[in-house]
Amino acid sequence: MKKNPTPITEQEQQGSRNLGRLIMQLRRLERQPHTFGSAGPLTPSEIHTITAIGPEGNVLMSELASRLGITKGAVTQLIARLEAKELVVRSPHPHDARGIVLSLTALGQEANAAHDRVHLGFYNQLRTQVSAQEIEIFEKCIDKLNDFLQQNH
Question: Which helix (H) or strand (E) holds 148?
Fold first, then answer.
């Protein structure tokens, strides 16, 4: 005999709808190019690649693919676009002739810093609208959501 599932509460329905709306907003943002500093318009994939390389640079192509969770072929295509925009440089690995090391150019560094400022501005604006306790809860929820998404994808 089948058990009847527990009825879904209004709060659960509202929470599910809100999460769905958030995901749709993030998807919408992920499709639109944005300008970061003097780098001109960059797709979300391009700026996230720049961020994954980071200001310290010296990242192997294979490590970048791992950080981004994409194939080496996809990284090669992204890096070619970023090189054409003069945001990234490839260099031979100093100890492994097969390895390629990636670093940001000065323009890439500028785009990375501008991207960081966008995130910080968003976070600071959020902090003006909610209490310190709500920010703490928000940060814990974001951590848990990130962990959940990593485990399930």
Answer: helix 132-151
Q: DSSP characters for 72-127?
A: HHHHHHHHHHHHHTTSEEEEE-SS-TT-EEEEE-HHHHHHHHHHHHHHHHHHHHHH
Q: Indicate the DSSP class of residue 130.
A: S
C-alpha distances in angstroms, 128 versus 43, 131, 141, 142?
29, 8, 19, 18
**Listing from the earlier edge strand, what are the strands of the sheet with 59-60?**
59-60, 100-104, 88-92
pLDDT in the model for residue 125: 93
Q: How confident is the model at residue 86 (pLDDT cuts 50, 70, 90)?
A: very high
CB neighbours of residue 43 within 10 Å = 15
pLDDT grade, residue 79 (50/70/90)? Answer: very high
Q: What is d(CA 142, CA 140) in angstroms, rounded to the nearest whole number?
A: 5
For the full predicted model, state whether its pTM sits above 0.85.
no
